[in-house]
Amino acid sequence: MSFQLPRLLAQKIQRAATRARGSELKLQGGVDGYLREYLKAFGIDYDPEVNKHLQISDYSTRGRPDSLFGHVILDYKAPGVLKTTAGLRKAKEQVVDDYLNPACSRSGTFDPEEAEKWAGVLSEGKELHR
User: Fold this and answer.
1) DSSP string computed for 58-103
2) Is residue 119 packed enough to be buried (19+ CB in 10 Å), middle (13-18) or exposed (0-12)?
3) What is the pLDDT of residues 75-119, one digit of tens each?
4) Closest by CA position to 59, among listed 98, 25, 87, 20
5) The architecture CATH gives domain 5-129
């Protein structure tokens, strides 16, 4: 494995953000493509669920995560949105309230063991937030 791969992936994602010109959908398409290519080098078939309701036992989320791969929720924002404190706070609240908390709850009760299985990732192509 090359130690250059993470740096190259970061550069490609930043270029995708530049090409997206403010479009979350274009950013998502570019980043998902680069993740597919990158993870293939590790034998991982990256084929995320895209814009589908998160269905967990007896609960369906009210929103649709941009991409869901296993227990990782990826939410893309237009480049620049996460630079402001208010934009970052609002985006984090969306991921936590709409996706992670419901995924980590069973019959309305938060399950810490289930929470250990999930991660939320926010990206606008320039910075990554978890």
Assistant:
1) TEE-SS--SEEETTEEEEE--TTGGGSHHHHHHHHHHIIIIIIHHH
2) middle
3) 999 888 898 999 999 999 999 998 888 888 877 788 899 889 999
4) 98
5) Alpha-Beta Complex (3.90)
- Stretch (H or E) spanning 106: strand 105-106
* C-alpha to C-alpha distance for 20 and 43, rounded to whole angstroms: 28
Q: Which residues contact 73 (CB under 8 A, 6 or more apart)?
A: 54, 65, 67, 95, 99, 100, 103, 118, 119, 120, 121
Tokens representing 12 are 């490609």
Domain parsing of the chain, residue ranges? 5-129
For the chain, how are helix, strand and coil distributed in percent, rounded to 5? 45, 20, 35
The predicted pLDDT at position 107 comes to 74
The pTM score is: 0.81
CA 98 remoteness from chain centre: 13
